[in-house]
Amino acid sequence: MEINLNKLLLRQVRKYFGSVDKIPVEITGLLHDIHKSYDDFEDDIKLLQNSIEISSQELRDAYHKQKQDAEAKAETIDKIKMAIFALNPSDHRNIKGSDSVPSDSSYLVDSLIKLIEERNQAEAEIVLLSKAVEQNSNKWEAMIAASPDGIGMASLDGKLQLMSDKLTAMYGYTNEQKDQYIGKTIFDFIDPSNHAVLIDNMQKLIAGEHDQQISEYLAVKRDNSRFYVEVNSTVLFDTNGNPDCILFVERDVTNRRQAEEILQNERTLFRTIIDLIPDAVYVKDTEGRKIIANPKEVQFAGKKFENEVIGKTDLELHPEKEAKRGMDEDQMVLQHGQPIYDIEGKLTDNEGNVYWLLCSKVPLRDVHGNIIGLVGVTHDITEQKKTESVLVKAMQEADIANK
């Protein structure tokens, strides 16, 4: 029986009875019930201990999990802060590790999403801007290619930065050769006799005194031959409004210049001829105002210099009766386009001198056949009239003598 008794019960039996054998028979049943209670109690203790151990482990596991979750959340928040700082480095706050920045992950995620959306919008705007710049660049290149004139760009000190194909060909270079001349000074392409004018024009242009004013220069081709160019320039400014470079457009005007010289030579020849003609020669516009008058015509008007006659009508230069007769003749020519020849008339100048004249007038037409004035030639027959008068008088006197 001793072996089967609970250890705690056996200790109590020995304390009070000395040994199990001395226990009265009347209480053996009680001892058996107590033994069973002790065994059940130990089982409960073991169960409780097991339960406590299990609960403690669960608590430890839960604690470790919560700790890991907190560390992960803190790490996530730090990463979000770093992402916000990367997207917005201009923020004056130190995002990473800053106590002034909320540590709530939902707030930071919202901030991060907002920054990402702003960045995406900015990138979309950059893409649109890039496309617009590319389109403008394509338009610029198309305009340069389509322009009949040469287009170039130079720095403020005159170094070439751009030469269009037209400009390159104008100076006798190939497209392959033009890259060799980028960076060279524009003075290499202008005759030295024009350098002082070019420097003065550039200084005025940069100062804003000569913008988009056309200038003409004697230019130098690759083969060292000379030709004339007409240049229109303007200053381009940087984003701060400061002069950055010079854009210029050139046109070869050699043919026009030569045509102008030929025309000027012809005008000089024409003027020389009409001034040498002994007859009076003049040109009038459709309003009867003189625009050309040779020395003989100036003399008939009673003046000394042509500028005293130019722009005036016959009414301002001659007696009214004779002036109206001349103006009536002018209207016949201007209105009907028919010339008149050798119309005899008489003219008295401001000094009372009387002239007998033969007048011829023809319409002056432009290249389209429109009448723009008339040309008149007046032949002085005063001496002839005087001679005729003397002869007539002599014949009359002879007739009287014969009678």
In short:
The chain is an alpha+beta fold. It contains 11 helices and 10 strands.
Q: Could you describe the 3D structure shown?
A:
The protein has 403 residues and is of the alpha+beta class. The protein is built from 11 helices and 10 strands. The strands form 2 sheets. A 5-stranded antiparallel β-sheet has the order 2-1-5-4-3, with helices on both faces. Strands 7-6-10-9-8 form a 5-stranded antiparallel β-sheet, with helices on both faces. α2 packs parallel to α3. The relative contact order is 0.04. The model is unreliable at 92-96 (pLDDT under 50).
Helix content: 40-55%
Report low-confidence residues grouped into runs of 5 or more: 92-96
Overall strand count: 10
Radius of gyration: 59 Å
- Alpha-beta content class: alpha+beta
Overall pLDDT score:
79
Number of DSSP helical runs = 11
The first-to-last residue Cα distance is 218 Å
As a percent range, the share of strand residues is 15-25%
Strand order of the largest sheet: 2-1-5-4-3
The global form is rod-shaped
Outline the secondary-structure elements.
Layout (H helix, E strand, L loop, with lengths): L6 H11 L10 H60 L17 H42 L3 E6 L4 E4 L1 H6 L4 H4 L16 H12 L7 E7 L5 E12 L5 E10 L1 H23 L3 E6 L4 E4 L1 H6 L13 H4 L2 H17 L3 E9 L5 E12 L5 E10 L1 H21 L1
Antiparallel strand pairs: 1-2, 1-5, 3-4, 4-5, 6-7, 6-10, 8-9, 9-10
